[in-house]
Amino acid sequence: MTPVLRISHAHKEYPGGVKALDDVSLTIGPGELVGIVGPSGSGKSTLLNLMGTLDRPSSGTVEIDGRDVTTLSDKALSKLRGRTIGFVFQQFHLTDGISALDNVATGLLHAGVARKWRHARALEALTKVGLAHRQNHRPHQLSGGEKQRVAIARALVNDPKLVLADEPTGALDTANGQAVLDLLKGLNRAGTTIAIITHDREIAATLPRCVVMRDGRVHA
Q1: Labelling 47: which of 58, 61, 146, 162 has CA 20 to 30 A away?
Q2: Partners of 8 in beta bridges
Q3: pLDDT tens, 41-55?
Q4: What are residue 37's DSSP bridge partners?
Q5: Quick one: residue 184, left, alpha or beta (phi over 0 = left, psi -120 to 50 = alpha)?
Q6: Rounded to two decimals, what is the model's pTM?
């Protein structure tokens, strides 16, 4: 079975000789739920950028669903990203002036989905996260936990091969954070492949697989 993600011997260096990743290899199979944990400066954010095709390695390869994305043009990469990867961010990144439904529909802008189908797909995604009844509410009318659920629905709306959740509970209180974590686990049980990037070892310890980052290298 083709891995959803395969990173092989990736190095990432920035100007000035700053080495962010040092010979990192990581494979995530279909249906996995993986935690990537490490302190600030460990390299996990750089790894996230490579996983999400937001950046390219200095050397090594990154494959998404069997395709070596390091060989793709920026245009082809953007198209692949829009169709195969969903992102969930700590600060939600919702657009204030539009409804939850329209915020979720923005996840289809780069996926080639016709405008007439976007709202139906967005409502289906909101239903998955239990927020169909809040579809017409704007972000300022939603709680922090509800905003993150909308963000998760946006990540799911195109049925991506991989969802990358970057500190998804970081801006939430304990109760809402646990609810979001439970939601992600439930989505994974339903078949969604998810990687959760976090500095919180307690969260990582509850996940089926944990990858530890330290000093730009994978240690587990």
Answers
A1: 146
A2: 61
A3: 899 999 999 999 999
A4: 198, 212
A5: alpha
A6: 0.94
Closest CA to 7 of 19, 20, 23, 31: 23
Across the strands, what pairs with 219? none
User: What residues contact 162, with CB distance under 8 A and at least 6 apart?
Assistant: 4, 5, 28, 51, 64, 84, 85, 86, 193, 194, 195
CATH number assigned to the domain comprising residue 153: 3.40.50.300
Residue 16 makes CB contacts below 8 A (sequence gap 6+) with none
Q: Is residue 3 part of a domain?
A: no
Q: Is 114 helix (H, G, I), strand (E, B) or coil?
A: coil
What range does the domain containing 94 cover? 12-218
DSSP summary character for residue 30: T
Cα distance between residue 109 and residue 93, in whole Å: 15
| CA nearest neighbour of 196 among 76, 35, 15, 45 | 35
Q: How far apart are CA 25 and CA 55, in angstroms?
A: 16
**8 Å CB contact between 5 and 162:** yes
Identify whether 174 is part of a domain: yes
SS3 at position 40: coil
Query: Is 5 inside a domain boundary?
Result: no
Whether 192 is covered by a domain: the verdict is yes
- Give residue for tokens 């199979």: 29
Give the Cα separation of 178 and 29 in Å (integer).
25
Rounded to 5 degrees, φ, ψ at 167 are 50, 55
Q: Amino acid identity of 49?
A: N
- Per-residue pLDDT of 91-144, as tens digits, reads 999 999 999 999 999 988 877 788 888 999 999 999 999 999 999 999 999 999
